Amino acid sequence: MIYGDLKGVFNFIKIMINYTWEEYNNDVIVLTDKIKASKIKYNTIYGILRGGLILAKDLAQKLELAFITNIDNIDSHTLVVDDICDSGRTLEKFRNYDTAVLFAKNDIPTYSINEADNWIIFPWEESKDKDAEDIVVRMLQHIGEDPNREGLKGTPERVVRMWKEIYRGYDDRQIPRMAVFENGQDGVRVDEMVIDTGYYFSQCEHHLVPFFGQYYFAYVPNKKIIGLSKVARIVDHFSAKAQIQERLVAEILNHIEKELEPLGCALVMKGRHLCKESRGVKKVNGMMVTSDLRGIFKEWETTRQEFLSFVNSK
Predict the structure, then answer these.
(1) What string of DSSP letters covers 265-298?
(2) pLDDT for 8
(3) What is the dihedral of CA 11, 16, 21, 26, to 10 degrees?
(4) Second label for 51, Cα 20 to 30 Å away, from 166, 195, 267, 301?
């Protein structure tokens, strides 16, 4: 009875198979030969998003055919490619075209070379970069571009690399380590205002276009002072994600105040927003100003005015 129960369970459980790049490269050659042996002439190859794109590109190269990504351009001489056909629902949309897959559970595809009896984990499914590049391809298609155009062939990869840089603020592991020193340890105690200014670049979370400008940071030390370059690094880190300027000011000061415990700190940010300048009202050179004043900068008018007069003079 136990054996029978276990046998029934194993009949329904799919074994997960990690399909390697080496296996893939070998299968591409086999699939290419099978398509050539059919003697059917194709002019273009279309890859179904997302799984079929990589295979379609490689088949197009080996068969010396044009690789297309716009579904509106497929015709009776187009070979439609996907990575797997299990339920058949995806390929059912292309029933009037010849199709090719690596794995098939039924005879729907025109060409296939492996049985899809198990759960296949394709090597590109482990790559978030490839998934992101597919998104860029779709974006290019949506705006009416041809992602296969010569000038755009490397664009998806370049965009993903850029995203890693300009959105690095989501990775807490990259938060700069604050170099904090004991105030007065070298015989010089700082009890006056310290000001740092610089430029920042961020991305508007409402439209994902840049906003940028200048920041003005000040603090009055208590027991600790900060290495001055660290302020700029902290500003850069919290700017490197989809933001609104109001929150950006608060996040920067929250982090610095927690580590530094000053008598007071303040931050003013002036920003130009391309979501306002390049679209919508299209008002150029407007400036948004946000501020956050804490401790003696908020409580003492003379300290506050000293700082704000410096900001307004720049």
Answers:
(1) EEEEEEEEEHHHHSSTT--TT--EEEEEEEEHHH
(2) 42
(3) 0
(4) 166
Place of tokens 């044009």: 66
Q: Do both 144 and 195 map to the same domain?
A: no
Q: Is residue 171 part of a domain?
A: no
Residue 173: CB atoms within 10 A of its CB come to 5
Q: What is the mean pLDDT of residues 238-261?
A: 96
The answer on 223 and 156 residing in a single domain is: no
The answer to whether the CB of 193 falls within 8 A of the CB of 219 is yes
Q: How many residues can be counted in the chain?
A: 314
Q: What beta strand segments (E) does 84-233 contain?
A: 84-85, 98-100, 103-104, 114-115, 119-121, 180-182, 194-204, 210-220, 224-226
CATH of the domain at 64: 3.40.50.2020
127 has a pLDDT exceeding 80: no
Domain count, the chain: 3
Answer yes or no: do 186 and 160 share one domain: no
Mean pLDDT of 177-189: 86
Residue 148 located in a structural domain:
yes
56 touches 94 (CB < 8 A)? no
Q: Are the CB atoms for 179 and 247 separated by under 8 Å?
A: no
pTM of the entire structure?
0.63
137, 155 Cβ separation under 8 angstroms: no
| Residue 172: inside a domain | no
- Same domain, yes or no, for 53 and 157? no
- Find out whether the peptide bond into 149 is cis, omega within 30 degrees of 0: no
Same domain, 188 and 288: yes
In this prediction, residues 201-225 reach a mean pLDDT of 96
Residue type, 295: G
Cα atoms in the 13 Å half-sphere on the side-chain side of 187: 0
